[in-house]
Amino acid sequence: MKLSVISVADHYPDGARQVGALYREIIDQALLAEELGYECFFVAEHHFHHYGAVPNPAVLLAAIAERTRRIRLGPAVTILPFRDPRTVAEDYALLDQISRGRLVLGVGSGYLKHEFAGFGRDPMEKRQRFDEALALLKRLIGGERVKFAGRFNTLDDVATNVTPAQRDVPIYIAALAKEAAYHIGRQGYGLFTIPYGTLEHFDEVGALHASFERGRKEAGAAAMQLPRGRKSPLLS
Fold first, then answer.
1. How far apart are CA 214 and CA 1, in angstroms?
2. H helices of the chain, where?
3. What is the CA radius of gyration of the chain?
4. Minimal CB count within 10 Å: which of 66, 105, 174, 224?
5. What does the pLDDT look like over 103-121, one tens digit per residue?
6. What is the pTM of this model?
7. pLDDT tens, 7-17?
């Protein structure tokens, strides 16, 4: 079993600790996680509330990348309905280069009402926005030149000016509904899930994982592996 760490980066502005000190604490936590042998260190993306004080995990993770050598790094997750897929591809390709190929790219569709309101996004459109952005992100971060006219994005023969160090960046999708595990596996992506938010009882985790692996098998994909043959992290 491989264990990983996630920081939601929740901040309490009425307390003595200032937000800059929070960031330094998170960096120190990542250094300790590497020293203790953890597999990955993830940082959540949140907006417009102190519940999470990292609006762009790529920035903080770049600072961590420069002070670590082994531990893999990534957002858990970057929220695609709020972002331009070109910018996401650029930010995380750059992080992969800085970290020498240690990126694990977690993506999700978002769930907090105040974040959708802050970006002027209709929550009813989040699935369509996510699907369109993810398809574009995968092509862009793979180095493809893209011409596309969709419902939410228009790209006119665009290619990013930086590509990842890894040949194939592992992409994980966050799921709160247990029914999504199969479909994520069927598409060949990795799975991020939070058992207490997804399942009635923890003993259902096995069935959730089996559903995900069934989707992977039907798609003809091997069991999900990180580069260098490491076991994939199940976010918990």
1. 20
2. 19-35, 57-65, 85-98, 113-119, 126-141, 180-186, 195-198, 205-218
3. 17
4. 66
5. 999 999 999 999 999 999 9
6. 0.90
7. 999 999 898 99
